[in-house]
Design a protein that fits this description.
Blueprint: H1 2-6, H2 9-30, E1 35-38, E2 49-52, E3 56-61, E4 71-76, H3 86-117, H4 123-156, E5 175-178, H5 181-200, H6 202-213
Antiparallel strand pairs: 1-2, 1-5, 2-3, 3-4
Helix pairs in contact: 2-3, 2-4, 2-5, 3-4, 4-5
Length: 214
């Protein structure tokens, strides 16, 4: 048991990193601040700033509100709309997949660590759990990386979106910048990929430890 515990320190770190990465992935998916649009016309968008997420767009408006008050107006993307860019719909699907894969990775890691620290010696099964967890973490990281990089590319190139009239949004901003969801997603990618690497390294740690003893 002691030998198994001594070779599982990286995997314990993988569990911590994977859990935090999975949480950040979930937070990034729920945030509306993927793209921050700055607009010149403040008739409807009173603050001059609108947030474009992967599920909805939001902005602050003073219309239809009592004087001195403001409200946040949000319009959710309903089904598939041809005017909404592909990277937004890709982000929806890939981040849902990443959240599911990350959860599977965390679960597999918990099972493996539980067997090690409870003294259940079954090296082959434990190694398989860590290998599965590692693959899940890496796949989850890649599923986050694709939409984050794609949307960041769109922001840096100031790409426009032809929103339908119901959104009360201009077709293009005066300027735009990356919102909080993108850097959070980048951190999630780094943590998930590190977690996957650490999990996969368990097999080599056990092999090295066995070779040294023999």
């Amino acid at each position: 048991m002691n030998s198994l515990v001594s070779t599982s320190h990286l995997q314990l770190a993988a569990f911590a990193l994977g859990t935090v990465g999975w949480i950040l992935c979930t937070i990034s998916m729920g945030l509306v601040e993927w793209r921050v649009w700055h607009v010149n016309n403040t008739t409807v968008i009173s603050s001059g700033i609108a947030w474009v997420g992967i599920w909805k767009v939001c902005f602050i408006t003073y219309l239809h509100v009592s004087p001195g008050y403001k409200e946040q107006f949000c319009h959710k993307f309903s089904g598939y709309e041809s005017s909404i860019p592909h990277e937004i719909y890709a982000a929806q699907g890939l981040l849902l997949i990443a959240m599911f894969l990350g959860l599977l990775g965390v679960t597999a890691t918990i099972f493996a660590l539980r067997k090690i620290y409870m003294g259940i010696i079954h090296k082959t099964l434990i190694t398989r759990f860590f290998l599965v967890a590692g693959f899940f973490y890496i796949l989850a990281g890649l599923c986050v990386l694709i939409p984050v990089s794609w949307n960041f590319y769109s922001v840096t190139h100031n790409q426009s979106i032809a929103f339908p009239p119901a959104y009360y949004m201009p077709s293009s901003p005066a300027a735009q910048e990356a919102g909080a969801a993108i850097p959070i997603g980048i951190v999630a990618v780094i943590l998930l990929l590190l977690s996957g690497t650490f999990s996969l390294s368990y097999r080599f740690s056990v092999t090295a430890n066995t070779t040294t003893k023999s």
